[in-house]
Automatic annotation (TrEMBL):
It comes from Candidatus Egerieimonas intestinavium. This is Aldose 1-epimerase. InterPro entries: Ald1_epimerase_CS, Aldose_1-epimerase, Aldose_1/G6P_1-epimerase, Gal_mutarotase_sf_dom, Galactose_mutarotase-like, GH-type_carb-bd. Pfam families: Aldose_epim (PF01263). GO terms for biological process: galactose catabolic process via UDP-galactose, Leloir pathway; glucose metabolic process. Pathway: Carbohydrate metabolism; hexose metabolism. It is an enzyme of class 5 (isomerase). It catalyses: alpha-D-glucose = beta-D-glucose. The active site is at H174 (proton donor), E310 (proton acceptor). Its EC number is 5.1.3.3.
Amino acid sequence: MGKVLFGVLPDGREVYAFDLENTKGMKMRVIEYGAILTSLEVFDREGQLRDVVLGYDRLEDYMVNGCFFGSTIGRSGNRIQGACFQLGDRQVKLTPNEGENNLHSGPEGFEKKLWKGEQQGNSVKFSRVSPDGENGFPGNFQISVTYTLTEDNQVEIAYQGSCDQDTVANLTNHSYFNLAGHESGAALNQLVKIFAGSYTPVDNASIPTGEIASVEGTPMDFREEKEIGRDIEADFSQLKATGGYDHNYVLDKPLGTYGPMAEAWCRESGIYMKAYTDCPGVQFYAGNFIENETGKGGAFYPARSGYCFESQYYPNAVNVPAFPSPVLKAGETYRSKTAYQFFVR
């Protein structure tokens, strides 16, 4: 356990990995490149460790990482319509990288940056300064992401930052979970519960329409746990538009409070996960567009072989006044926390 060399960037900069283990034997690895969570080993029903997140063995693969496996996403997770937004009297223009829209802050987001990692006990703090104009965002943004592996089998992810200009701060983690093990294939028979009675419908470019719609009576309803695959192919326009689940859910808790976000369970392994956040929304993404990736240990990752619970402000919130605002005022402190906790059931 501790700090080990993971790889070297083309410009010669070294990238280190940090290995953490709690007293129960749960293990986690995070790396300085992209502040990425690369592996998470938890105990199954038989007492065997299984790595439950998708990822790669090599730095070179993370430098491509079209699926954003394990990545820290920033400054703004999810989509911004037209790759632009108004901030006071200024129009901010970003780089379009999904049609005319901006996804996950552009082609060179936080997941493609080298962070500085510092370990203290069972926490690793990754820090960097995102300079004024990086990917089009205003202000020098000092940001840290701290991963902690706790004694009650939680992975806590805490974000903190401040900026010298008004900017957008909406960071998230893009880990793909498969509670049967990362190498086990499609995860459609795993059960999910989401603590949300409504969601934000999207147009054909996956931009929210501005409506907040009830999940009642639709395939979007995960208020009671159900298999991911049960309704994913339903004849429902929202699922057709996105190739399966890839939607923001409006969490059933007061704005700014920390509480449950989602749960997942694999009957076969017995591994059960609870997720918590202080964010107002969570993007549930069922891995529809994983395209036969080769992952850790040569594992084959087909479509829907992992799923994400991306805590967040709603997509395109900076352009929708009715949505909670992701704007961080100059000099104020951005803080957010999300956690994933593991049990056997």
